[in-house]
Amino acid sequence: MNVCDNLGDHLVGNVYVKFRKEEDAEKAVIDLNNRWFNGQPIHAELSPVTDFREACCRQYEIGECTRGGFCNFMHLKPISRELRRELYGRRRKRYKLCMSEEGDMCSSDHRTVFHFGSVHFERSLAQ
């Protein structure tokens, strides 16, 4: 899960979540588009991006970004230890994951490949 801490209109309030199964990502989009947060509708959509490393601000990661919250690269807000454990803790215990030669995640027996989908959540700016 990537939570943007930027202030620019195109990144403010954005959250990116990876799913192991594409159908789970699709269901999340449908369900979330019927939800509200903080008095505003949630706008969720599928994203073709599965690797956000190139979209992250390297200067921000080392504490040297001079553009502040209006930087066009993602400034990731850390998620709490409890949420991280809830999201990722069980998966680590249940699956021994590795990288396949193609760069996809696979099970330890190299037979099952997991393709990740992403859901992009955007905060509505309408009042």
Overview of this protein structure:
Helix content is 23%, strand content 28%. It has a six-stranded antiparallel β-sheet, covered by helices on one side. It has a three-stranded antiparallel β-sheet with strand order 6-7-8, with no helix packed on it. The protein is α+β, with helices and mostly antiparallel strands and 127 residues long. A hairpin with a 5-residue loop joins strand 7 (105-107) and strand 8 (113-114). It has one domain (2-123): Alpha-Beta Plaits, CATH 3.30.70.
Brief characterization of the structure:
23% of the residues lie in helices and 28% in strands.
Search tags:
Nucleotide-bd_a/b_plait_sf; 6-stranded antiparallel β-sheet; 127 residues; single chain; zinc ion binding; U2AF_small; 3-stranded antiparallel β-sheet; repeat; Alpha-Beta Plaits
Structural class: alpha+beta
Number of E strands = 9
Order of helices and strands: EEHEEHEHEEEE
The main sheet comes to:
6 strands, antiparallel
SSE blueprint:
Blueprint: E1 2-4, E2 15-19, H1 22-32, E3 36-37, E4 40-47, H2 58-61, E5 76-77, H3 81-94, E6 97-99, E7 105-107, E8 113-114, E9 117-123
Antiparallel strand pairs: 1-2, 1-5, 2-9, 3-4, 4-9, 6-7, 7-8
Zinc finger (C3H1-type): 51-78
Protein name: U2 small nuclear RNA auxiliary factor 1
Domain C3H1-type: 51-78
